[in-house]
Fold Glutamate receptor 3.5.
Amino acid sequence: LQGVVAFRHYTPESDQKRRFKAKWKKLRSKESSRSGDGFNSYAIYAYDSVWLVARALEVFFSEGNAVTFSSDPNLRQTNDSNIKLSALNVFNEGERFLQVIQEMKYTGLTGQIEFDSEKNRVNPAYDVLNIETRGPHRVGYWSNHTGFSVEPPETLYSKPPNKSAEHQRLNEIIWSGNVTKPPRGWVFPDNGEPLKIGVPNRVSYKNYASKDNNPLGVKGYCIDIFEAAIQLLPYPVPRTYILYGDGKRNPSYDDLIGEVAANNFDVAVGDVTIITNRTKFVDFTQPFMESGLVVVAPVKGAKSSPWSFLKPFTVEMWAVTGAFFLFVGAIIWILEHRFNEEFRGPPRRQIITIFWFSFSTMFFSQRENTVSTLGRFVLLIWLFVVLIINSSYTASLTSILTVKQLSSRIEGMDSLITSNEPIGVQDGTFAWKYLVHELNIAPSRIVPLKNEEEYLSALQRGPRAGGVAAIVDELPYIKALLSNSNCEFRTVGQEFTRTGWGFAFQRDSPLAVDMSTAILQLSEEGKLEKIRKKWLTYSHECSMQISDTEEYQITVQSFWGLFLICGIVWFIALTLFCWKVFWQWQRLRPEDSEEGRASEEGSSSRAGRSLRAASFKDLIKVVDKREAEIKDMLKHKSCMKLKAIESIAENSDSKHPETP
């Protein structure tokens, strides 16, 4: 049993426990001369159990309960047995007695005795023992309060519970063989065969998996990931790599999966795509690389358009921007018309001024000066908006003119399906079955291609010269193809499947789960990325998709915040302006107008409409007058009102002379 780790009921040290052990040892020495006291943790628990029942009975009887029994009709005497079950009786007050036991709280030899609502003891604990040559040795404790620890559990109950991994500690454990290193778990038997690993013998894209003269016999991106994951397993795995395929063309990956399912291989390691049909026969690990089918087609440079200067903005953006330019011109005219001579004159001149001022702000070259406070405030906010719009337009136009625009007559998988042109696929992959069975493309249209040279040749020749219109293949291969083709081709449309690469094990193999865990660990530690950079870093990187002009266009959604701020500022400025004009109009109205309206209440409706029309004309006149004239009129009216008051006061004094 050397190296075994076991658990034992923990009993805290106390004076009560030491006194009991001393009495027990003394009693045993009188009764027997044998060495040892025959004392263990179970004896202490038995002792506390007896006292628990005794104390519970004392409480039970103190409450006035009685002990009564009754026969149970369910207990019947069997004819073929000597056990007389019918003689057994049932304790009628058993449920109450059990409740009393659950409510007991006192300190015994095993520590505090108390039960929770689920009838479990509160704060149970165990000793963690390590069996050595000299016997069991305690290496720590376990309790449901803190988990594993090297401190006695009762010293930790006053602290908050902490079961985090970094606080789980035990003293050193001596394992079988007198070693301190934890064993790696189960191992393959020494007389058993090593793991048979099938590796596709590729003729293209050999950086993923290929034949080599090293001790393993194979090399590549997938092989390095498998080896790195194997090293993380808690047990050694003897293994041997076996190439699958004749080396003249890529082997069928479905056939390789069939060999694993037929027990000819234990695992398939390589660029094996995880698809539904294959998961019916084998167990895949966690994907170590994302993949998916994409369409690659020839591209050509798009012709430059004479209307390219309109492309930075969408149609909606142009319309909203133009409307705001006109609005700001009109608002500035309203706010400046009473103050600024440059915004006065004949109607035709004023309309031209509005248009000129509006669009000249685009270049910050407006010749008219703003005089009013509200006008300057509105113009300040608008010039800030114009600055942002100009900068965005310049940046977008620069991107459109400098980035090379490419176009292709194949727009994606949908346009490829509707055409009748040939499609290239990589020989041996699942792409052929996917196009035929899932997308219902005629098998006569699909052309298997063996290597990258055939890829490039078929794309360059095109369908008219015996080539293909496009190639459908997995994303990792396409990245390498585009890099080696000097970016003559691009992917069109979106990636239309989402899959990944994994290692295929036999069904219910325990290695599949362990290898998945190891792959996740490699990903978290950044080792997957290091292996990728080692094997899949290309000297010439290409952008995958054709860049669309719409990607650089600016929409209204990008500027609605600025337009909203402008609208709020304009509304506030116009509100203040209207309030001021109305206040001035009220002050300039004749004082007897109220009396006149009161006396004409019984007049005809025609006279009422005439009065309202006259008031509106007066308001328009106030709006159209210069601010200086309005101030002079208000000042003159104030003087006239003051003189009238003084005249009334003098007349009043003359009518009532003082008596001597």
Notes: The radius of gyration is 48 Å.
